[in-house]
Amino acid sequence: MNRIKIINILALLVLLINLAAVNVSASANDIIIMRSSQSKSNVSNGEDFELDVYYKNASGQNLENVYVSVDRNSSFYIDYSYPQANELGNLSSGSEGSTKFKLVYKGTGNELTLVFDYVKGGTPDQVSQTLYLSVKKEKEPTSGGSQTDTSEYKPNFRIVGKINSKQEGKNISIEVPIKNISNFSAKDIQITMSADSADSPFTAAAGHLSIPINEIKPDTEKKVKIDLVVKPNTKSGTYPVKLDLRYSNLYGDLFSSSEVIYVDIENNDRSPSLILKAIEMLPKKPAPGDKFSASIELENLGTLNAKDIKVTLKGFSNEGIYSELTGVNYLKTIEGGKTGKLSFNLIVSDKINVRSFPLEIAVDYKDEFGNSYNESFTYYVPIQEENGGKVSLKIDNISAPSGVVAPDKDFKIGFDLVNNGTKELSNAKVWVTAENGIICKSQSIIMVDSLKAGESKSFEFVLTALTDTPTKNYPIAINVEYDDEGALGGNKEKQTVTQYVGVYVENTKDDEKKENTSTPRIIIDRYSISSGQAVAGKSFELELSILNTHKDIDVGNIGISFLADEGVFLPAAESGSTIFIDEIKAGARVVKKMTFVTKFDAAPKSYLLNINFEYEDEQKKAYNLKESISIPVMQEHRLEISEIQTGMEAFIGQPIPVTLNFYNMGKSTLSNLMVKCKGDFELQPGSDYFVGNFEPGRSDYYEAYVIPNKEGQVKGSVVFTFEDNKGEVKEIEKEFEIFVQGMPGGMMGEDPMIMDPDIIGKPVGNAPGGFPGRIVLIIAGISVAVIIGVVVLIVVLIKRKKARADLYENF
Questions:
Q1: Partners of 541 in the beta sheet?
Q2: Is residue 777 within a helix (H) or strand (E), and if so which, with residue range?
Q3: Helix (H/G/I), strand (E/B), else coil: 736
Q4: Which of 1, 178, 780, 794 is buried most deeply by CB count within 10 Å?
Q5: pLDDT tier at 148 (50, 70, 90 boundaries)?
Q6: What is the C-alpha to C-alpha distance for residues 18 and 721, in angstroms, rounded to an integer?
Q7: What is the DSSP annotation of 410-463?
Q8: What CA–CA distance (Å, rounded) separates 378 from 386?
């Protein structure tokens, strides 16, 4: 056995071993043929020639043990004196190479199918590529011949030569050489490419690309230009493009075929990637019991847009930090390279005992193609240590009439005011209010000078129903107003606590009384709101005391449903929408709690919460009663005040500017807003500033000139007074300090314009001409005063200009 035969047998054995374990689901473009070159063209039957084949590893992985052979069904075979398989070795990802074959033409057709066998990722695989070589062809028959089956005159197209492509950004232009390799002309050629399928990396202008060509004669080449757009999510690499051809011969017979080309794409787009860029808190360091806002800023580091962004705060705790609502917020889009912000309203628990509290920020989002992403960040919220404690009031042990109240009969409302906080209460005002028909006969307002931490105090008010007061349940509000010195930014602010108790008035003059003397009735005899009042956009807990007013008849199977005017109150998800009570004994009451969420855009006023009772008596007789209670809604005011700026140096008797900016960051108008300055100093006229109605989103600045009259540390404050949307007067005080120096040059208490005549004409030292010494001192004093005045004026003008700039920038 000669050496050539041994090599052939070994090559065939290697080929058979690879074929035995071949994976038939191979990727069609793992190895692609870039081009080929024949040593002879128009080869005849039995003629041999050499073929150079240039290939590329386009799989994206390394390929091992690569062999290439000729498919037995090809129009050519490898000369038997040469190995029947070429060994290409290992191909790294993206590498290119070439191999040479000695081929012999069988005499029919022109197709050469090359089979590549290789190992990819440890698994044998295989891919085939077909070339169309130049062979000697028969001449095209002329019309009028004796043949009757004209469909045999089929044109045949192949991609020949080099495919040129040019990419600019997302646009790519491809020039494809198409050749008619048959002996028959093709007419009315239509080349189409579908670019709208889900797995296609390209799109066309209208989603479908169609190119017409009138005619391509035998052995003629046409260059076809294709303009495509690369999809944003396409990765860099080599991609197949299928071209479908429809055409006819000279006799009108229709044919179709398809060709595949390979296009290299470079795409620098990056998927969306959101990071936590910044968190801005107001106040920056909340204290226990504070409400604060957290503005979370996310940045998209990718070039593609992030869409349907959902941000969830996790790690809430009743003894740490928790959310006023759900702790979930949404953002529609953050464009590539841009940022987006979301805000959360949070509360620091009174029971918190750490200096920083961790919150997990979970971010879920999608790209433009529906692919999902998620990120998670942890942020430690700094907690301010309490300075001197905090006031926390509770209205407890409420006593009220348990039965009905008759007109013209006095009744009492009693309760305890408890300071559950850690700081002494001062300047508290306690009073009760009721609807028309109920009046207070005792002292209507009681002042409380002091209530120490942990201390309680009892109160009692005497009320009466007027003679013509109609029969119904009347809510009576217990109100407590006090100074809160732990408000936002250290400002003093009035706080109000309100709780309600219901009194049922039954008038004997009403016909309803006579007709229903034996009817068991249930009423809301008292109710309270956890936060004192409903705040727009926030939740509150409503505690209801439900009384069976009948002295002898029990009621049961009680269903209570709620419906608010204008839909302003909605039951929270955890509360449900209906209360069910098995039984209320005669003369007894049951206390139930419901949590409601107030609409964020509710106008500040009182709304009726309509309550429907369905129940049965002891004989299973059904009743249906309706009642309503009034719940005041307010839009929380947020008057933000900047730090107070004063002059660089202060001197006795010289005016010093005091400036600050202020902003209405809430959703309600602050009525009759007045800004004043007070302290141990005099004020230049015009220091009081009446702003009037201060609308939401508006900003302004305040400027006053104070004239200190003593040296050392001088304290003062800027006081804001306004009426909130309930008509209550609120006051916020912002304190400041200035250090005052004495007048330079010993000019304190002297009038520089008064001259001593005894001194005039007396020289000072060696002053030429006997210049009056006292006049020198006087002029020096005046010069110092002028200089100080000029400096103060410049400082005032600079601050005034800066304040106006800040105002317009923040408006």
A1: 595
A2: helix 773-810
A3: strand
A4: 178
A5: low
A6: 91
A7: EEEEEEEEEE-SSS-EEEEEEEEEE-TTEEE-S-SEEEEEEE-TT-EEEEEEEE
A8: 25
